[in-house]
Amino acid sequence: MFNLKNARLDRLAVHRVGSKTDPESLDLSKDEITPDEDILNLLKKFFLKPFSEERFFSFKHSTDISLNECYYYVKEVFTDPEKFYDNSCKIASLLHSESRHPNIKTGELYVSYFDDVNFGENITEAIGIFKSESKDTYLKVYPKKSTYQVDAEMGVNINKLDKGCLIFNVEEEDGYRLMIIDKTNKGGEAQYWIDDFLQVKIHENNYYHTESYLDLCMNFVEEVFPEADKIDKIGMKQNASNYFKEKESFNVKEFEDEVMQQPEIIDAFNDYKSQYQETKQVKTYDEFDINKSAVKKSSKFIKSVLKLDKNFHIYVHGDRSKIEKGYDEEKQLNYYTVYFEEEN
Predict the structure, then answer these.
(1) Max intra-chain CA distance, the chain
(2) CA of 100: how far to CAs of 72, 194, 228, in Å?
(3) What is the structure's pLDDT at 228?
(4) Are residue 225 and residue 122 in the same domain, yes or no?
């Protein structure tokens, strides 16, 4: 749906922003910067490489979208790019005013303007807002007279973007389309980037529907059957995951028949789904096209390993019926019997 490969970084302003509890932690630069081509390429990698998932958001406001300050400043830039620098300062000031928790780190805020961005069938513009809060230590080795000198320097790791937001100039009336990165989402300051500064809501596309339903299934297995045999739990999770891997579209009746199968499990699943939707304030749909990127991401978190004391790990990838659990009365130990046709 999007392609950032040909995106061109045209404008860049860098400010320094920290917690509002420290009034001196806001330092606005006096102008835009124009790095050379090599630095621009490094910055483009730093800014854009983390954005790979088709998980989109849009700006929101309880009464009028134009009252969302970040949306308003972004819209001004898309309307008139010559207002880029002034609005980059306003964006930095807004972030500072919304960074209320004292644990929020001071860091560089990069506001950028991209051209030639592929989004769907459109070639459009995008505005990036990125913040680097973490610093790494680097060794600098250089020749000095007849030997070498080694120094340590603190700097930003271009492979670790702490926080980022990429706003595409599409669907303006619906709050644009955004992609968000937040790698330092911890503690009491956790939601300031998404909830306080950006004020966004999830955009309900097929990626969202697929991700939500898989999350629902995994939580159902763990919460409704906490005492179930681990093999059975692994089997049910894998059945759900395989359904999404093999099908192109989701149909709730087909899913229940093929994955849940037993009427009592189907009833328990539907009861849990109602509670899940109410608790998490999400809506699940009975039919949608399956997004394979969301399936691939969710599959990483399905644990298919049985850890037996500190002696053995059993990886369960296939037919549940080929492994059985038992208890040896004489040895007072549990055991598993595994059936197979050939050893590789």
Answers:
(1) 82
(2) 21, 13, 45
(3) 65
(4) no
DSSP per position, 200-241: EEE--SHHHHHHHHHHHHHHHHHHH-TTS-HHHHHHHHHHHH
Query: Which range has the worst mean pLDDT, 32-41, 181-190, 300-309?
Result: 181-190
Quickly tell me which residue has 């061109």 as its tokens. 8
Sequence-ordered list of residues with C-beta below 8 angstroms from that of 173, at least 6 positions apart, any chain: none
Nearest to 130 by CA among 98, 158, 155, 153: 158
What is the C-alpha separation between 220 and 283, in angstroms, rounded? Answer: 16
Q: Which residue has the tokens 């961005």?
A: 117
Tokens representing 340 are 């197979």
Q: Do 56 and 69 have their domain in common?
A: yes
303: phi then psi, degrees, rounded to nearest 5: -80, 120
CA dist., res. 238 & res. 265, Å (int)? 16
Give me the helices (H) in 69-135, please.
69-79, 84-98
Task: With cut-offs at 50, 70 and 90, classify the pLDDT of residue 16.
Answer: very high
Other C-beta atoms lying within 10 Å of the C-beta of residue 127: 27
**Is position 242 within any domain?**
yes
Would you say residue 290 lies in a domain?
yes
| pTM for the full predicted model | 0.79
Say if residue 73 is in the same domain as residue 100. yes
Q: Whole-angstrom Cα distance, residue 85 to residue 94?
A: 14
Report the chain's C-alpha Rg in angstroms: 25
Shared domain check, 240 and 126: no
pLDDT number for residue 172: 95
Domain enclosing residue 26, as ranges: 2-133+159-203
Tokens, residue 28: 């606005």
For the chain, the domain total comes to: 2
Encode 237-273: b = buried (16+ Cβ within 10 Å), e = exposed: bbbbbebbeeeeebebeebbeebbeeeebbeebeebb
What whole-number distance in Å separates Cα of residue 192 and Cα of residue 197? 6
